[in-house]
């Protein structure tokens, strides 16, 4: 009689790993958004896992911050999905998008400072590809409808949006912009930059 092979609890192990990863990403988002210098040990403790478990999923601080940033941007992208961006007049839609983007970025601005310390700028930009596609679509519509300038490349205007909003987070963090100033400054700056030259 053939021996029955011992069953391996692979699905259970996989479910445990997925729970651990979710807990690590949630803890990482929360702690790094409060303190960009939060340690890997602090994040492991907040996630309820050991450092060995954390390093098993994320072998370095860079890998952990990279995954946490991807997680945060993914959540932000879902929040930014707003039909009015494709239907409201382009300047109004841009102002709304800037308000929503800034609210989310302000909540996580210290996470982005943590990312700036360990990740190349190009990698941080790659994480924003999904939300920036929405920005690109909106600017292109504004150009087509005659609201936005067409004398500068579309890709450059999208890059400018990305740069300005992240610069605002740094200015807010250093105190060079007061919290109540950021949103109106962002909207006025971006809309003046996008406007057709006189």
Short structural summary:
By secondary structure, this protein is mainly alpha-helical. 77% of the residues lie in helices and 0% in strands.
Give a description of the structure.
There is one protein chain. With 198 residues, the chain is mostly helical. The chain folds into 2 domains: 10-59, Orthogonal Bundle (Arc Repressor Mutant, subunit A), CATH 1.10.10; 61-194, Tetracycline Repressor, domain 2. The chain has helices spanning 10-34, 40-47, 51-57, 61-80, 84-87, 90-118, 121-127, 129-144, 154-174, 179-194. Helix 6 crosses helix 9. The radius of gyration is 21 Å and the shape is elongated. The mean pLDDT is 88.
Tell me what the CATH architecture of the largest domain is.
Orthogonal Bundle
Largest sheet: none
* Cα-based radius of gyration, to the nearest Å: 21 Å
Would you list the SSEs in sequence order as H and E? HHHHHHHHHH
CATH superfamily of the largest domain: Tetracycline Repressor, domain 2
What is the residue-averaged pLDDT? Answer: 88
The helicity comes to over 70%
**Count of domains:** 2
Helix vs. strand class: mainly alpha
